[in-house]
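Run folding on both entries below.
>entry_1
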Amino acid sequence: MNWTLMWDSLPRLLAALPLTLTLVFAALACGGVIAFVTALLRLSDYRPLVWTIKTYVFAFRGTPLLVQIFLLYYGLGQFDAVRASVLWPFLREPLWCAILALSLNTGAYTCEILRGALQSVPAGQVEAARACGMSRALAFRRIVLPIAFRQMLPTYGNEIILMVKASSLASTITMMELTGVARKIIAQSFAVFEIFILAGVIYLVLNFVASQAIRLGEKRLQPCG
């Protein structure tokens, strides 16, 4: 074990953390918006819209994230219409393609998590809110959403941890996040074991912090009594 190399490589790996965290937070934020909208549409009575959302969820849950990243980064550029569109300055950049792929992927998973949580809210509590004079929108905001969020948090916590690990796939499209920097150091030093062990420990620390934050959130959201 080359401890000197590991110690010297640590600052370079830590310097890649802001980009890694940017990928994770941006994907979770955008994916959360996608999931909220698609989950509500998934519960609508308009069948063509429901089947469209089902197709999106099935496609992104049923295919590997790595394939989705490659299709967005390498595949879209093959179409003249895409290269001529206003979106091309963004789609040709690996950062935006990685964020888009991660967002669409986590959005599909979170959509199903949120949909299940919304459907699990007891109907009696909604009826009680309506009996107290709340409108449908107010009851949804004050009763349904808080209960659904509390119920989905443990499962969504797993999705957050998966996104932290999935961010490493951005290195396959030249992103110099944590894994990308680790691969560059390995190419220079040929110390595969030491560098990947060090990168793995950093990911482990990130996920430990995330899991503790999720556990704290679960405790804060527990109903009193």
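>entry_2
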Amino acid sequence: MQILIVEDEHEVASFIKSGLEDYGFSADIANDALQAQVLLSNKEYTTIILDVNLPVINGFELCKIIRSRYENLSILMLTALSSTDSKLSGFDAGADDYLIKPFEFRELIARLRALNRRRSLPSSDPVLKIADLEFNLESKTVKRGNQKILLTARELALLEFFMKNQNKALSRNEITEKVWDVNFDTGTNVVDVYVNYLRKKIDKDFSPKLIHTISGIGYIMQESDK
């Protein structure tokens, strides 16, 4: 993996770079958004480790810029901001994963490897279907019946996971690990928030309902809750 570290604290950036190189990764450092964009335009990276508290342009805004220009680039936000709202802001901006400082380096490496595995998965049937809902994986377009539905990047990832696991009970823990590549935190309701977002867009004005709550477990996607 070619990794770009975007971190304005020089000691932290050097620590991360040194640790990554110990594990055999190649890493460069950018101390702000401008340096990051220059490096991205001149070198091909597979993954970005992105801090939030950056000068001039914060990590959330930079994440949006990067995601709009580099669709296949993996973005891991590494920040001290630990609230649910901060995590949601990161995922809404296009981040693939979110790790909180302070962190264990082994966990960072595990997250990076998981992101790399997801990038390397071979594509299967480009269109997922359930009832009258269709999701084209290549064009990232969703429609139910004849109506097109606009979803954020994180909602698309969640819908893809649901549709690839139809008729299977999915725990919040499993959804978090597979969709966000993060260990489940019982103090956050990120999964529930995003399931509600998704329901409003693909279920609220349609029949049959497709996303169902399983008390004490999590959720299931199926045409009927019987």
